[in-house]
Amino acid sequence: MRAMLLPPRMIAKAWPLVREWVTAALIEGKADIAPDDVRARLERGTMALWVFLDGTRAKGCVVAEFADSVRGKCCNLVVVAGHDFPSWRHFTETIKAWARAHGCVRLEGGGRDGWQRLVKADGWRRVRTIVEMRLDDGLE
Predict the structure, then answer these.
(1) Architecture of the structural domain at 2-122
(2) Residues 88, 1: contact at Cβ < 8 Å?
(3) What is the pTM of this model?
């Protein structure tokens, strides 16, 4: 198993491997960004794509972006998706080292509630909750 950080010039070739995962993660996590916008940002280099491979087969991916804040530079994990997460979760250490090398003092990620349960043992903790009230007809 290996982790690959793809340069922007490789996104078009890799997108078919991760498109469904990214789309599902954004929908399930009620994200405010569309898959096409993620792809465009990856191609511009304002987001980064990590792909986790078992031989030539992709097992998962992480889409990340850096953000400055009053609490210090952050590496935001916009998407964490794939299958057989236990087989590639150890690459969190690789992403942490990469984020530190870019001056980040923390990782941040959001999404569906189930992630908290999955990553709690790795040292992740909930720091805030986002709630929403629909003002339209409530259809999503």
Answers:
(1) 3-Layer(aba) Sandwich (3.40)
(2) yes
(3) 0.89
